[in-house]
Amino acid sequence: MNVKYEWINNFFSTNYFFKNIKILFKFSYKTLFIICFSFSFMILSVYFTLLFKPLYYMDINVLSIEQSSNRNKKELETNYNYVIKYLTENSLEGFNLPTLPSSLHGKIHFKEVKAIFDKLKLILLFSILISVVGILINKKHKTIKYLKTSSNFLIIIPVLLLIPFLINFDKSFITFHHIFFNNNYWLFDVQTDPIITILPQTFFFHCAILIIILIALSSILLRCVYKLKYKKLHSL
Fold first, then answer.
1. Cα-trace Rg, the chain
2. What does each C-alpha distance from 32 to 26, 136, 179 come to in angstroms?
3. pLDDT on residue 232
4. 118-143 b/e with 16+ CB inside 10 Å = b?
5. Residues with Cβ < 8 Å from 63, sequence gap 6 or more?
6. Could you report the per-residue pLDDT of 142-166, keeping only the tens digit for each?
7. Which range among 38-42, 135-139, 218-222, 232-236 shows the weakest confidence by mean pLDDT?
8. S-S: 36 plus which of 4, 7, 130, 214, CB 3.0-4.6 Å?
9. What pLDDT sits at residue 154?
10. Would you state the torsion angle of the CA atoms of residues 163, 168, 174, 178, taken in this order, to the nearest 10 degrees?
């Protein structure tokens, strides 16, 4: 009799264990899906800003870069376009600006920056893959809550980033470099790396603001889609 009851207890304990494992797996996947789905919008915002050359062209006038760098607009645009091409394409093996010299440390820094963007590409591809699978699963079960959750996540990120940027962008800029780089090669000497004169810190501040705006717009877009789908589901 004792053996029988012991077997029954073990049976129910096993079922309870697997039930908890199933719940944990489901929760873990949902969390991974929300993170990947949200990260897709965040990384796309970064890449859009990187490829949005009109921002720099506008800043040439707004920040008076021609005067501060003693270079004409055509030369500024030519070198900037080269930097973007180097960071986004694999056709250029070494970092060699069209009209500006670069030190060894300067070249290493841009190679490290390129490596970061290459990793972002891989993260983006992985995030999109997980997102597609997650969207299909949610569509099958006719659930749309992920849109609202992702929207909330995406609106929190800009707020958290915007506060330190607005309070002290200089410190945030330095902290960012300390986090992503394990050297001081990003501290350019204007004599050996004059590229620093054509890429003022304020331009990067404008880039950061654009990224934050794009993430916020993504959040608003997801919230609108959620509301439309919610009304559609509850009108049936």
1. 25
2. 10, 15, 24
3. 83
4. eebeeebeebbebbeebeeebeeeee
5. 200, 202, 203
6. 899 999 999 999 988 888 878 888 8
7. 232-236
8. 130
9. 93
10. -40
Rounded Cα–Cα distance for residues 51 and 156 (Å)? 25
**What does the alpha-carbon distance between residue 178 and residue 184 come to, in Å, rounded to a whole number?**
8
Question: Averaged over 180-205, what is the pLDDT?
Answer: 93
Q: Which of 121, 147, 136, 130 is nearest to 36 (CA)?
A: 130
User: pLDDT averaged over the chain?
Assistant: 88
Using the 8-state DSSP alphabet, how is residue 168 labeled? Answer: -
Amino acid letter for position 151: S
Contact 38, 190 (CB under 8 A): no
Distances (CA, A) of 149 to 68, 139, 227: 46, 16, 12
Contact 40, 128 (CB under 8 A): yes
**CA pair distance 162, 173, nearest whole angstrom:** 12
Q: Is 191 exposed, middle or buried (0-12, 13-18, 19+ CB in 10 A)?
A: exposed
6-40 pLDDT per residue, tens:
555 555 555 655 666 667 777 788 899 999 999 99
Q: Name the residue with tokens 């990793």.
A: 119
User: Of 42, 44, 53, 59, which Cα lies nearest the Cα of 205?
Assistant: 59
